[in-house]
Amino acid sequence: MHIVVVTISDRASKGIYEDLSGPLIEDWLTTAITSPFDVTRRIIPDGFESVRDTLIDLCDQERVDLVLTTGGTGPAPRDETPEAMRAVLIKELLGFGELMRRISLDQTPTAILSRQTAGTRGRTLIINLPGKPAAIQLCLDAVFPAIPYCLHLIGAGEIETDPNVIKSFKPVG
Ligand SMILES: Nc1ncnc2c1ncn2[C@@H]1O[C@H](COP(=O)(O)OP(=O)(O)OP(=O)(O)O)[C@@H](O)[C@H]1O
Ligand SMILES: Nc1nc2c(c(=O)[nH]1)N[C@H]1C(S)=C(S)[C@@H](COP(=O)(O)O)O[C@H]1N2
User: Fold this and answer.
1) pLDDT of residue 173 exceeding 90
2) pLDDT (0 to 100) of residue 171
């Protein structure tokens, strides 16, 4: 199970501020997943080509099972993560963005500004999270119960979670 966390931020990629969201995602995964996996992190600038080329490389060359991105989902001119996703995904999974926006509204009214989405390309599942560190745990707690089954359905690696942290749901039969 190979997982890659991609932080998408002009300023974090230039070292103007420290990337907090990428490490938060890695820590969350380490707490929640009990089966063998490895996780690597990348930090890239915002922008359509930057995000598209990174995601295609991770899916088609690196054959990563799960890609979690953070940042670039808002309405600002340089926020082009959703446009890049549209160029990369073969199947969009709209429920991920819908659930994360719904749950995030309890935290902030600006949750509706995130255009985060998810989907698959080959045997890779890609999920966007907002850039704000405060969004990470909330969004992962919300959507992760469905991720092991999704990975199973697309023929990616199998994943087990600690039921005290995340109860994965797998339909029987
Ligand atoms: N990866 C991150 N680590 C730490 N803080 C972050 C991260 N991403 C976003 N933030 C925080 O959330 C704020 C808003 O994030 P947003 O993604 O809108 O940044 P931005 O204004 O588009 O600029 P940039 O893309 O250069 O980070 C940032 O100013 C920063 O304080
Ligand atoms: N849970 C949660 N979702 C959130 C936020 C947040 O603080 N918590 N910030 C919102 C804000 S202010 C913006 S602009 C959008 C897009 O952020 P991004 O461009 O960093 O991805 O995510 C939104 N979703």
Assistant:
1) no
2) 82
Atom of ligand 1 nearest to the CA of 73: 17
Does residue 61 sit within a domain? yes
Mutation pick for ligand 1 pocket among 5, 9, 48 (CB with most ligand atoms within 8 Å): 9
**Rounded distance between C-alpha atoms, residue 60 and residue 79, angstroms:** 24
Count of structural domains within the chain: 1
Ligand 2 mean position to 133 CA, how many Å?
9
CA of 132 to the centre of ligand 1 (A): 6
Q: Which residues contact 153 (CB under 8 A, 6 or more apart)?
A: none
Ligand 2 atom, smallest distance to 72 CA: 19
User: pTM here?
Assistant: 0.97
Confidence of residue 141 (pLDDT cuts 50, 70, 90): very high
In a domain, 90, yes or no: yes
Q: Where residue 172 falls among pLDDT bands split at 50, 70, 90?
A: confident
Host H or E run for residue 95: helix 94-104
Euclidean distance between CA atoms 35 and 151, whole angstroms: 14
Average pLDDT over residues 27-55: 98
CATH number at residue 116: 3.40.980.10
